[in-house]
Amino acid sequence: MSSGVLAPGGRLVMTRASRLGTAPAWLEQARTTGFTVEHVDERPAEPAMWRRLYRLWIAHADELLSELGEVQARNMLREAHQVLPTLPGRRAVLLTLRHDTKQPATPGTADSMPGLSRHSDERTPQ
Length: 126
Fold this sequence. Notes:
Layout: E1 11-19, H1 26-32, E2 35-42, H2 46-59, H3 61-68, H4 70-83, E3 90-99, H5 109-112
Antiparallel strand pairs: 1-3, 2-3
Helix pairs in contact: 2-4, 3-4
């Protein structure tokens, strides 16, 4: 999240995920980068959608390899095997953020925010 790409008052919509029963990090991340969380839309069907998609990727691994090539297919299959077991404990949301016109982002905070890595508890499958 970087407020430098939006005009004051501009909106950003993004998806995020967190573990069920834990406090989501996005509230603090939004605040420290100059955004206000305007709305949180729960997406309860999203983990089931990813579960179906990942199972299809795994079931059709040979076709993926043939059609997409070794690198892309292996990356997709690695993601499926890593994320699939975590989906039952996921909360998926769609966030609407507004660029705060009163409080500029703290310099350098976007550089220190955790990214959407494959090992983060905050990762939404893309």
